[in-house]
Design goal:
Elements lengths: L1 H40 L18 E3 L6 E4 L5 E2 L9 H11 L11 H13 L15 H9 L7 H17 L2 H11 L1 E3 L2 E2 L1 H9 L8 H10 L13 H17 L5 H9 L14 H15 L1 H6 L3 E4 L3 H22 L3 E8 L4 E6 L31 E2 L6 H10 L7 E4 L35 E4 H6 L3 H11 L1 H11 L21 E2 H12 L3 E2 L5 E5 L5 E4 L5 E2 L3 H11 L2 H8 L13 E6 L5 E7 L4 E7 L11 H4 L1 H17 L39 E7 L15 E7 L25 H13 L16
Amino acid sequence: MPKIESYNKTNKKWHKNGLNVLIWLFILFFIIIIITFVFCLKDLPNPENLTQRNITESTKIYDRTGKIILYDVHGEEKRTVISFEEIPQYIKDATISIEDTNFYHHFGIDLKGVARSVVYNLIGKEVLGTKTSVGGSTITQQFVKNAILTSEKTYIRKIREAILAIEIEMKYSKDEILSFYLNQVPYGSNAYGVEAAAQTFFNKNAKDLTLAESALLAALTQAPSYYSPYGSHFETTKARQEHVLQRMNELGYITNEQYENAKNEKLNFVLSKSGIKAPHFVMYIKEYLEDKYGKNYIETAGLKVYTTLDWDLQQIAEQAVKNTAETNGKKYNAQNAALSAIDPKTGQILAMVGSKDYWAESYPKGCTPGKNCLFEPNVNVTTRPRQPGSSFKPFAYAKAFQKGFTLDTILFDLKTEFNPYCSSDATQTQDQYGLECYHPKNYDGKFRGPISLKEALAQSLNIPSVKTLYLAGIDETINLAQDMGIETLKDRSRFGLSLVLGGGEVKLLEETAAFGVFANDGIKNSIQGILKIEDGEGNIIEQYKNNSKKILEPQIARTISEILSSDEYRAPVFGRKSYLYIEGIPAAAKTGTTQDYKDGWTVGYTPSIAVGVWTGNNNNTPINREPGAVIAAPIWNEFIKKSYSKKQELKNSTKPENYFDLPEQAEEFIKPEPILTNKNILNGNYITDLLIRIDKSSGLPATELTPADLIEEKIYPQIHSILYFIDKNDPQGVTSGQNDPQYVNWEQPVLNWISRLENGYIYNKNPIFIP
């Protein structure tokens, strides 16, 4: 019994002590809350004057020299305050539906919304495919942030925002607060308030906005630059507008019929140049700034943003794109074009043209942007994934060279089936498992027989290139491409051997920068658009830093440059002095054409500048069966030629700070070192004596029925596919690849080719048809 009493006393003591601890913790927590609350009240702005927005010095975006203003973010700020009654009910309902569905029922803070925001942001949930996180701010809080406070991301600011929101709710009615918000909120393109937004985007008064237009404006406020109708993400903007309409329908603001009609209504935007130079580039930079610093900060901080853009080269690029794109539209039904130029030694963007004319109207007239327009002016194609065609081939060849294959390694350009479960004669369409057979063709439908890797790449032959990708390895090639700057090839389950022919989407800007690794002796510099940013007081808050990284051995980069710059190697297909050749300027280039003729590319470089050009149609409509060498290469050629010429014109002028120059004497590519190897098979000398009995009457191998007097014995070199001699994973070794699943399908066309030889003619460099 004493033990039980002792236990009870001990237990009560623990309970008492625990209760005391909890009480003291509660008191301490309460004191901390009070102190924080008092601190937040200190210097709290007076909400009495909240209808007056505090606008500070505008942010300016400059070219690299600081002499050219590309865009003055608030140079033309537009705002017209209208009464609550003049604001259409559609915009009120749309705004509440997407921003704060509980607006008329909370006291300035929506506790459910805060909880939802915390949960969504913890699990990393994305909204409509954008990078924006889910916010818990009410309309009242957003108004406080925009009109009174700043966008500083601190807990103290959030607490102050909440306090002011509650105070405003006590002073003003809900309709007054909504009116404040709709007259104050930024919609992008320097439009503040719904009246200015209606005029800016639709050239009408707010009271005349349709339901569809009202939903579009409500969709913009979350990220005005990203969702801008004049930006590069109109498909996402349209999806968000439809999401606003869907929310209005779910909340009972509109009927099902109204929802369907508004969703399908064509939106006609007013085109306004707004004093922007290099608009696609400016939008690219503005989106970066808003994503990193917040849109409210860059709108009020008076920043000076010095970009990497070279205004001289930008003007050349815009003119080259516009001139050739107009011709391509008439002759080849390629209605659009884009160009990106990068300094390979720094990764800095020198020129960016996202379409042939940012200020033009979509084509054809009456088309729906994001769906069926051949040409969309505001979409920045340099940052949109497109299939690159054969311009992707150098990555596979570079990987093959890394593994030990050489410029002179011989592959056979013969009709070849690459699905090992399909017959080697390449006549099947599906294998026994229902999978498609794969036997690609060259552009001209011809075959060259045995050919070296250097000739196959320079002439852009498809069959040897598919074999090169197989030898290099699909995953290993993707790894290399990613290391060099290609970031779009995420889902590897989508990619097979067609990858080397452009079967995966890449961004023109990224591929241009990746080619810059070849230009820069294997050294990668990540893409940069900004040299430095100064705040209103002149403090540098961001500055370009060199972040070079070695990706390739110089020998590999020089080997690719040797191939792509050789007019001799590519002449059999492209002819002498084609658009890939520039007199007096050593330049390497690779064209690309998707197999369904939806895209034409030319990407190339000198040691000083990397340039990529895309041509085609925004809606993926095929062009008139013309390769990138015909529709993209002229733009590439003109830009590089005129860029060097322009810089030489200015060679004696005073150079401002950060001036980008091109050498007066164009740089030569450094030659790769000669490859010394005793592995003859690597250099194509697959030679052992082979005695063949020939039927003299036909020139073909004799059979058992051939008369003895017609039999002639000849000695031929022993010819096989490369897998007869080496394993693809060990090209420097002595292991045969005859157990490789591709071996039979690679070897049989070679044996068939040998049987057709006449008079010992083996290395057939001229195109031939083989039935």
